[in-house]
Amino acid sequence: EIVMTQSPATLSVSPGESATLSCRASRSVETDLAWYQLKPGQAPRLLFYDATTRAVGVPARFSASGSGSDFTLTIISLESEDFAVYYCQQYSMWPSWGGETFGQGTKVDI
Amino acid sequence: EVQLVEAGGGLVQPDRSLTLSCKTSGFRFDDHAMHWVRQVPGKGLEWISGISWNNSSEEYAQSVKGRFTISRDNAKNSLYLKMSSLRTEDTALYYCARDKGSGWDWFFDLWGRGTLVTVSA
Predict the structure, then answer these.
(1) Residue B104: is its pLDDT beyond 90?
(2) CA-based nearest residue in chain A for residue B49
């Protein structure tokens, strides 16, 4: 089974600042990792897949890096619309085999 | 417009059944596997079920296996989730999500806004 750990649980930043979010897998997932943004009342949004590939329409102020078991999502020059909860998701191991697929999320707030 | 719209949520008693639906539009539905993901209020995301583009393969999380059944109707561009023997811990916001591929890419490039299921006596 894979355990996904995100840190910090909450990140308090101001508009214009940068935010660095961490996601760690309990074993290597190679680059089978995605990042999502969730806002209340809205459909979740895919930000990155294959660890570093930006999804369509995602602004360049978002970047992602990592491989193996350590991954990072970075947001520079935060805008008000970026305040949300961010989840990482591994897809190296099928979730039907057990274990976690999503991390517990990092809330980015003011 | 490309979208997924869930429906069918509501208040249901424990041990009863409920069927959710997800109506899709704006893309070729049978080009993609589809999934259901839920979020318990105040908690994180949990993948619960997926189905291949042609109904040939279904996958379930251990937490719902044997109680939930996923299906799809490609002619109606719709995805379904039949939930039986519901438990209070099934209370959650249920999202319909599109797999990026027709096979099992296992990540989700399009989501709906969700439908809330509350299991309570």
Answers:
(1) no
(2) A96
